[in-house]
């Protein structure tokens, strides 16, 4: 697997690729950094995101998993920066139960780029599978100025 590292405000992140598309984002440095067009672009876009200069990720990606998992991730990818939806709203958009949509959201292999942190519980923040859990989710929402509901 090909990977590149980005030092972010959340610590080192590694983006992985199959040589053509982005396949993952992890909270750790890559063992060996690789330069490929899609990884270079992912690092550039993530850097711009953390600097507050990027509003929309435009990266080729592939989510391993079922058609449903990919459909949920595609729906999450379309949530605009600064906006949030509930697990129930996500489920409605995907034609599934909130639990099924939440499970698919929690299995998102490319967090931040596929912004699962923008999906909240009806009366809580819900969870976050990335390093730091809900605290990281809150940081990301504040970074995106979507934190008004948190105060």
Query: Helix-strand pattern, N to C?
Result: EEEHHEHHEH
**Overall pLDDT level:** 93
Kindly provide the radius of gyration, computed on alpha-carbon positions and rounded to a whole number of angstroms: 15 Å
Strand percentage? 15-25%
Shape field = globular
Low-confidence stretches: none
List the topology elements.
Layout: E1 2-8, E2 11-17, E3 22-26, H1 37-50, H2 67-77, E4 85-86, H3 87-94, H4 98-106, E5 119-120, H5 133-143
Parallel strand pairs: 4-5
Antiparallel strand pairs: 1-2, 2-3
Structure description:
With 151 residues, this protein is an alpha+beta fold. It has 5 helices and 5 strands, in the order E-E-E-H-H-E-H-H-E-H. It has helices at 37-50, 67-77, 87-94, 98-106, 133-143, and strands spanning 2-8, 11-17, 22-26, 85-86, 119-120. The strands form 2 sheets. It has a 3-stranded antiparallel sheet, covered by helices on one side. Strand 1 (2-8) and strand 2 (11-17) form a beta hairpin.
């Amino acid at each position: 697997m090909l990977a590149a590292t980005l030092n972010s405000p959340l610590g080192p992140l590694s983006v992985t690729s199959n040589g053509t598309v982005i396949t993952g984002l992890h909270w750790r440095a890559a063992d060996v950094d690789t330069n490929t067009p899609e990884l270079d672009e992912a690092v550039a876009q993530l850097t711009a995101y953390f600097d507050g200069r990027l509003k929309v990720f435009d990266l080729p990606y592939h989510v391993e998993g079922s058609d449903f998992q990919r459909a949920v991730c595609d729906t999450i990818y379309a949530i605009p920066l600064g906006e949030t939806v509930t697990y129930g709203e996500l489920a409605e958009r995907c034609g599934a139960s909130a639990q099924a949509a939440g499970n698919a959201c929690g299995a998102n292999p490319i967090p931040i780029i596929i912004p699962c942190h923008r999906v909240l519980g009806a009366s809580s923040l819900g969870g976050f599978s990335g390093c730091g859990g809900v605290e990281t989710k809150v940081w990301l929402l504040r970074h995106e100025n979507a934190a008004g509901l948190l105060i």
